[in-house]
What we know:
heterodimer; A: alpha/beta; Rossmann fold; 10 helices; 10 strands; 26% strand; B: mainly alpha; ABC transporter involved in vitamin B12 uptake, BtuC; 16 helices; disordered C terminus; binds adenosine-5'-triphosphate; binds magnesium ion
Amino acid sequence: xxxxxxxxxxxxxxxxxxxxxxxxxxxxxxxxxxxxxxxxxxxxxxxxxxxxxxxxxxxxxxxxxxxxxxxxxxxxxxxxxxxxxxxxxxxxxxxxxxxxxxxxxxxxxxxxxxxxxxxxxxxxxxxxxxxxxxxxxxxxxxxxxxxxxxxxxxxxxxxxxxxxxxxxxxxxxxxxxxxxxxxxxxxxxxxxxxxxxxxxxxxxxxxxxxxxxxxxxxxxxxxxxxxxxxxxxx
Amino acid sequence: xxxxxxxxxxxxxxxxxxxxxxxxxxxxxxxxxxxxxxxxxxxxxxxxxxxxxxxxxxxxxxxxxxxxxxxxxxxxxxxxxxxxxxxxxxxxxxxxxxxxxxxxxxxxxxxxxxxxxxxxxxxxxxxxxxxxxxxxxxxxxxxxxxxxxxxxxxxxxxxxxxxxxxxxxxxxxxxxxxxxxxxxxxxxxxxxxxxxxxxxxxxxxxxxxxxxxxxxxxxxxxxxxxxxxxxxxxxxxxxxxxxxxxxxxxxxxxxxxxxxxxxxxxxxxxxxxxxxxxxxxxxxxxxxxxxxxxxxxxxxxxxxxxxxxxxxxxxxxxxxxxxxxxxxxxxxxxxxxxx
Lengths: 234, 339
Ligand SMILES: Nc1ncnc2c1ncn2[C@@H]1O[C@H](COP(=O)(O)OP(=O)(O)OP(=O)(O)O)[C@@H](O)[C@H]1O
Ligand SMILES: [Mg+2]
C-alpha cells in the first residue's frame, strides 16, 4: 500500500534521514519506533509532503507522492494525526471534525461518519460545542484521531499518540487504534513507547539516528535481545 | 420562517433603518458637517482595517503595508476619474481590483514561504509604493500631491450626505462579504490556518491557495477604501500613506480583537474620533495609539471584543440568539446555565 524507497531528508546541512526504505501493506498496523530525534516525525512529514525530500521515492496505492501537494495526498486517502495533536483550539469540537472532512463532498456519508465517530468516541459527542482547546489532553488526542478519521482515510499515520498521557488513557487510545484497524483502516504508528507499540503492531521498524537498524514482526522484535536492551528497558 | 432567514431579515432591517436614520441625520444637519466628515473617514478606516483583519486576524498572517494598498486604490481611482473621465463607482471598483492584483503579485512569492515573510515583504511594499508615487509625478502629482480630484457631487448640501451614504453602503457590503466568508467552508479553512498551519495542511487544506485568496481579497478591500478616500478627500499625497498609517490600521484590528468584525468596526470609529478630538495635542497625539495599545495589552489582551478568535462578541450572533424569553428564564440561574 505504502512503499518508501531510499528516502533522504536534510534540514539544511543536517542529514536527518539516511536511505530509509520500508513498506506498509493493506490491513496492517506497522510501527516505527525509535528514541528522541531518531527521525520518526521527519519520516511521517516527508510522506505527507509537509517537508521537502532530497531523494528517494514514496509510493501510495500506485501514486508517486513527491509530485503531489499535501491536499492531493489527503484526497488519495492518506492522512496524518500530527505529533502533539495540533487540534484547532479556538474552534469547537464539531468544527474540528468538520475540518477533518474538509476535502469530502459526499454530505450524506459524512453524516453517517459522524455517528460512527460518536459511537467510537462518546466523550466527544458530549462536548461537541466546547472549544477544543479546553479539552483534556486525552480528549484532545481522541479529537485529533477522530478529526483525521473524518477524512475517511485508507492509511492513517499516527505520530506518538501516547505522548503526555496517563497510562490508563494510553491503553484506551491504543485499543481504539486497534478497533480502527479492524474496521479496515491501515495504520502506520510512530512511537517512543516501544513496548506498547509492539504489543499492537503486526510489524515494526526500528529507527536510530535517521537509519533503519532493525525490522521484523512485532513479536520477534519484542523478544529480541537488542531491541529489549535499547528500547524496552532490559 | 427558519432561523437563518429570520436572522437575515432582521439584520437587513437593522441595516436599512441605520442607513435611513444616519443619512437622514446628516441630511438635516442634526449630525453637523464636521462630525459627518469624521464618520466618513472613520468608515473608510474601518473598511481598510477589515481588509487587514481578514489576512492578519482571521488568517493569522501579519501584514504591515495596508496603507500601500490604500494608496494604490486611491491613486488608481483618482487617475481614472481625472484622466479618463470614468464614473466614480466603476473607478472605485477598479481601485480595488488594481490593488488586488498587487496583492496577488506580492502574495505569490511571500506566502509560499512560512513564517513572517509576509510582514517583511508588505513592509517593503508600503515603502516602495510611496517612493513610486513620489516619482510617478505625471499621474500622482509627485511629492506635492494630487489636487482637484472631483468629489461625489459639487452640490454643497448633498456632498456630506452622499459621501457618508456611499461609505455606509460600501462598509455594509464589506461586512456582509466577510461575515459570509468567515462562516463558509473556505472561511473555516482560513481560520484553521491561523489556528495551526501544519494541522490545516495535514487535513488536506490547500494552505497556500487559501492564504493567497485571503490576502488578495484583503488587498482588494483596502484598495476599495483608498478608492473611496480619493474623491471624498479630493487631495492625495504620498506621505499620507506612510508606515505610520499602516500601523494605525493594525492597531484598529488589534484593539478591536484579532478576527473580530464587530470589534474592528467599533475600534475603527472610536480611534478615528479620538484622533480628531485630540487634534489640539498636535503631534503628541501620535503617542495615543501606542499608549492605547500598551494599556490594552495590560488589561484586555484579546481586544475590546473579549477573547481571541471568531467566538468573541458578534452582532449577527447576538441578533440570531437574542431571545426575550431567555431573559425571564435567567431568574433561575440553575436552569439558565445548562443547555
Ligand atoms: N525543522 C528542523 N530543522 C532542523 N532540524 C530538525 C528540524 N526538525 C527536526 N530536526 C532534526 O531532525 C532529527 C529528527 O527529528 P524528528 O523530529 O524527526 O525526530 P523524532 O524521531 O520524531 O523525535 P521525537 O521522538 O522527539 O518526536 C533531529 O535531530 C532533529 O533535531
Ligand atoms: Mg517526533
